TrEMBL record:
Recorded GO CC terms: outer membrane-bounded periplasmic space
GO annotation (BP), single: regulation of polysaccharide biosynthetic process
Domain MucB/RseB N-terminal: 28-207
Domain of life according to the entry: Bacteria
Subcellular location: Periplasm
Protein name: Sigma-E factor regulatory protein RseB
Lineage: Bacteria, Pseudomonadati, Pseudomonadota, Gammaproteobacteria, Enterobacterales
Length: 318
């Protein structure tokens, strides 16, 4: 939907007599209910995920049985991609790749990460605004805006099914209010027949766990002088890897909703250079300064990534 048309519809809904004369729902509580519903209910989504470059059609099934979580994500068009969850084991299958398994609590590829967020904690850095109702996939949905208090990160519009609190549509917006990515449900099934796929999933062989590369030690002394409010590094505070006989040190940062990675490594380039790339939510900002290459990669606007890189203090201890 065109951003201006969406704005007009939501503005009319927010200013309508019914909305103005009645108490507004607690948007933060509704978001917490969404996070609970996505983990605890039995359901099946047929949905699309779209960004500036591509559109995918997918099916996601989720069942809680005897206290355990079973789920399946299936790409419906083009190359077959399937992800299965058998409680804490997340297995990936793709025709041109060797299957592998990771440990986790949910299939991260199934939904925008916002649905799993701690909205109580995030309220320090984001406003939650109820803006009205709209119909999605023949279901009445409540619309919530997740708006950063500082203009250095993205925002969301979220449509929640009024009955189940499951997300029916999620739009990620850039600093100009333009849609970068969209998650949109086409059909929702809450029937009793969902448990049938669980038996097949239980019997299916589980691919081996993926092994992470060994870490190496290098004497880097570096830290970001500036970060957007609320972003903290996630322990272990630093990863150091050997890649093609070169050391690469990295740190991962998140505010609980968006995340980015900072990497630094020594290079032979003498001249200071700078480059950037952006596609949908993903930004890559690279700088070479004093024989050290630093890269900021993540779900943040380009202007924010550049400011982080500009304020990175680093050196190699000799």
């Amino acid at each position: 939907m065109h951003p201006f048309l969406l704005f007009v519809i939501l503005l009319i809904a927010a200013l309508s007599p019914n909305s103005a004369g009645s108490e507004q729902p607690n948007a933060g509580m509704m978001l917490q209910e969404m996070s609970t519903a996505i983990r605890s209910l039995n359901y099946e989504f047929n949905y699309i995920q779209a960004d500036e470059q591509d559109i995918d059609s997918l099916r996601y099934r989720h069942v809680i049985l005897n206290g355990k979580t079973f789920a399946q994500l299936l790409r419906m068009d083009q190359l077959r991609v399937e992800v299965r969850q058998n409680n804490d084991q997340i297995s990936y299958f793709q025709s041109d790749l060797t299957p592998f398994t990771l440990l986790g609590t949910h299939i991260v590829d199934a939904f925008p990460s916002v649905v799993f967020s701690d909205f109580s904690m995030l309220s320090q850095y984001y406003h939650y605004i109820f803006v009205g109702k709209m119909r999605i996939a023949d279901r009445i949905c409540q619309i919530i805006r997740v708006l950063p208090k500082e203009n250095n990160r993205y925002s969301y519009f979220i449509w929640l099914d009024e009955v189940t609190k499951l997300p029916m549509q999620i739009n990620l917006l850039n600093l100009n209010g333009q849609t970068l990515e969209q998650f949109k449900v086409i059909s929702l099934n809450m029937g009793d027949n969902l448990t049938s796929f669980v038996q097949n999933l239980k019997k299916a062989p589980v691919p081996p766990l993926m092994k992470l590369p060994e870490e190496e030690t290098v004497n880097f002394d570096w830290f970001p002088k500036w970060l957007p409010a609320g972003f903290v590094d996630i322990p272990p505070n630093e990863h150091q890897l050997m890649h093609k006989k070169k050391f690469l040190a990295s740190r991962f940062y998140t505010d609980g909703l968006f995340s980015f990675l900072i990497t630094v490594s020594p290079v032979n380039k003498k001249n200071n250079t700078e480059s950037h790339f952006q596609q949908s939510r993903r930004t890559i900002q690279t700088q070479v300064r004093d024989h050290i290459q630093m890269t900021v990669v993540g779900e943040i606007p380009l202007s924010t990534a550049k400011r982080i890189a500009d304020n990175l203090i680093l050196k190699i201890n000799k």
